[in-house]
Design brief:
The complex is a heterodimer of chains A (183) and B (194). Chain A is mostly helical and 183 residues long. Chain A is built from seven helices and five strands. The model of chain A has no long low-confidence stretch (mean pLDDT 87). Chain B has two domains: 50 residues; 124 residues, Methane Monooxygenase Hydroxylase, Chain G, domain 1, CATH 1.20.58. The chains are: A mainly alpha (183), B mainly alpha (194).
Amino acid sequence: MSLPPALRASVTPPELELIACQELVEIIPLIPMEKTAFIAGAYGPLRPPHRASIPIWMALNLKQKKKCHIIAPAWLSVEFLDAKIKQETTQAEFTKLPFHFAEISRVLLDGASDDLQNPDKLRTLLQDLREARQAKARAGLESLEHSTLGLSNLSAMEINEIRPFFIQAMAVLKQLHVPPRQP
Amino acid sequence: MEDDYFSIDAILAENQKVGCRFKVDITDMGHLGGGGERDITKSNTLQLPLWMVYTVVLSDWADMIMPPAFGSKVRNALSAEPCSVRLASLVGAGGLWYGFGRTIMEMLDPRLDDKKKDMSDLLTNTFRKRLYEVIDQAQHFAALGPAGGVGPAGDSAQSFREGLDGTERELFALAQEGSKRMKRWYEEGEKVRR
């Protein structure tokens, strides 16, 4: 393969960010726009002050030009994340979160932090959540097996982070495993 | 570590010598032992390279002696505390302890399934117990950034890192690289914000 080693094992975080930006988000447009066809699909029409659902990349673009307000998804709020952290630290399994929560929360916090309530608090909460989940994923290493791995509710970014060495570790375990003899 | 003919790791893992006790007399082969004797005599013990051991053992000319890297002393140490054993020093610099162990395991008498299982369990358990520490330290180092930092508290951790075998080293690098990428991505965002 002609790819550098770092890119062979998994996709990069910026690539994941790009994928996550295809997700829809609600906005309040400040300009009217007819229904427009993009490669990804047709979005619009935008009629202020009615809400509309458009992909995140488009919302961020409009936001940059001050042509819309982004309405934060329900899960990107202090109360919701607080509850999730409580769950995360008390339960053994991972709590359910949007698959792309890490990417979406980051781009929204970067590009539209004035549309969010209490962005600094959100940032710390997300950081706490991430660390709690990371610790859990690492603890799961001890029960790693050569054939199967079950980590439900893990998000795209987290899977991507642990993928390279989990794969390698499982390959090693597979080599060390002696299959039971056929009767 | 795998059976692939072209795998460099497999070749490196076989770069070891294993003691063999001969069961038959072999004439004119004394030079293999490096000694002055002309013949290999019965019950003589020689250190043979691994690739030769295959033939010698399978032809029933000699018995393999379990290498000290997997002897009872190491086994006891591993069952006591896997993280405090320096695997690298058991197999020499750049050695592959797991790869070597796997080769030995393959060579164990197929009639003795228990022994094979024992060996597999030893390798698997050691690997699994050390893995956590490997990943933990890799992520810790990724978080430190290029400046690095070796505090006085890092003694046992440092000795653990020095004792990593080749396979674990690779995992360490993978985990470190992954964490670094994530860190960079999160920090990129912070820069945009400012």
